[in-house]
Design a protein that fits this description.
mainly beta; Tachylectin-2, Chain A; five-stranded mixed beta sheet; binds 2-acetamido-2-deoxy-beta-D-glucopyranose; signal; Glyco_hydro_beta-prop_sf
């Protein structure tokens, strides 16, 4: 315990340079032979303990909040992040839409008061200063369904060029996670209000963590954890984005992955997922595919830098979205949630630079180098975008 405390103190306080992206980085040390679970157990125990003396390291207090008035443009992963009114941003499990009409970014996510009260929306021109646009879909609208839902998770919004509508998909569920469905809502404006159109089980299957991805050609896809989180399903949406088409592929079968975040670079699709360990963080994995419908092949853990136990816990967070940086091909922001199980509305955002390129880190089971490019998420205690 003393040793862990010292190591964490050193890790959080002293060991990081402040850099801009994109940055080349030294190859990380080789992974341990022992099981990841054993390596991270002491850390996870502390993380889940609301009375841990290390709590301030995982959840730094308001004194070190990211405050837009400072104008520093530094992201500080895990710190409280305030909006332009000085309130903590409530957009957990979120995603960002870039609206080409208004040249504005919109960040949608779970607006929590412990429980989710709706979908929060924040707008920004620079991805750092966020203005609260209010709750664009209230949980009450969803609770009005005949099958009463109590949960709303991981809302994502895309724009339909043909219908001119902003379309939101989200995981809706009851408190026991037995409904396991997706909800769909629609709006004429990115700032809502969104009209809830109801929920369904896509392709007739249970659906929990999910995301949607709009491809370059305008075709959108849903990716969701199914069959009690044992596999993922992927399939195209209808042209209006309001339903799924019948074709669906089962991917990552038997791998028990959730929290999918999909992106594309030079014709290759990438997907980051987490394992299923509740609010506790675990190791991220990237898969790649030439066709979005698969086959998907594992590249490995994208996390780079810092101590092994932080890489093995995705820097104490869980993937939610990968945002392409306009004008910087191959550069992305990895967006993740550091869930705070004792006070879910005080969960933190971990935004880190993600880069594609260079040889792959991982060897496949035959010992050969993976044919896919390397995907890396670099840990930084503090960092900012190159042009801000
Ligand atoms: C929920 O349903 C009630 C009764 O039909 C209605 O009065 C109320 O406006 C609805 N609330 C929302 C948020 O849609
Ligand atoms: C979380 O919600 C609780 C209950 O509404 C509230 O007392 C607390 O201040 C909230 N915390 C944050 C960080 O918003
Ligand atoms: C490992 O990578 C090599 C080289 O790309 C490839 O030929 C081989 O099929 C891969 N093996 C497995 C088990 O994926
Ligand atoms: C980290 C930091 O410098 N935070 C400061 C930003 O500005 C606000 C308002 O002036 C201060 O209260 C914070 O301490």
């Amino acid at each position: 315990m003393e040793g862990l405390l010292l190591m964490l103190q050193l890790y959080f306080v002293a060991s990081h340079r402040n850099v801009n992206v994109p940055q080349p980085s030294a190859p990380p040390p080789l992974r341990h032979k022992h099981s990841p679970q054993a390596a991270i157990k002491p850390l996870i125990d502390e993380f889940l303990d609301a009375n841990s003396p290390l709590r301030h390291l995982f959840f730094p207090d308001i004194k070190s909040a990211i405050h837009p008035a400072n104008g520093s443009h530094y992201y500080r992963p895990g710190h409280i992040w305030l909006d332009t009114q000085g309130n903590p941003i409530q957009a957990h499990g979120g995603g960002v839409l870039y609206d080409e009409t208004s040249h504005t970014y919109y960040w949608y996510g779970e607006y929590r008061q412990v429980g989710v009260i709706g979908v929060g929306c924040y707008s920004s021109k620079d991805l750092w200063t966020w203005q609260n646009q209010g709750i664009v879909l209230s949980a009450q609208q969803i609770n009005n369904e005949t099958h009463k839902s109590n949960m709303l998770e991981r809302p994502k919004v895309i724009y339909n060029d043909k219908t001119g509508k902003y379309v939101m998909w989200m995981h809706v569920d009851d408190v026991h996670y037995r409904k396991a469905a997706v909800g769909i809502a629609i709006s004429d404006r990115p700032t809502g209000p969104f009209q809830y159109l109801g929920s369904r089980r896509p392709h007739g299957f249970d659906s929990r963590d999910m995301t949607i991805f709009k491809d370059d050609n305008g075709v959108a896809y849903i990716i969701y954890s199914s069959k009690m989180n044992t596999e993922l399903h992927i399939g195209p949406l209808t042209e209006d984005y309001l339903d799924v088409k019948p074709n669906m592929r089962r991917i990552l079968v038997g791998q028990r992955r959730e929290a999918p975040a999909v992106f594309k670079y030079q014709g290759t699709y990438y997907m980051i997922t987490s394992a299923c360990t509740g609010w506790a963080p675990n190791e991220a994995k990237v898969d790649a595919a030439e066709s979005i419908m698969g086959p998907w092949e594992t590249i490995g853990d994208p996390c780079i830098g810092g101590k092994e136990m932080f890489r093995l816990t995705t820097f104490l967070s869980q993937s939610t979205f990968v945002l392409p940086l306009l004008g910087l091909p191959g550069s992305y922001i990895f967006m993740a949630d550091r869930w705070n199980p004792a006070e879910l509305n005080d969960s933190r955002y971990v935004w880190l630079p993600l880069a594609i390129g260079g040889p792959s880190l991982e060897s496949n089971s035959s010992g050969s180098q993976s044919p896919w490019p390397r995907v890396s998420i670099h840990w930084h205690k503090k960092w900012r975008l190159p042009l801000s």
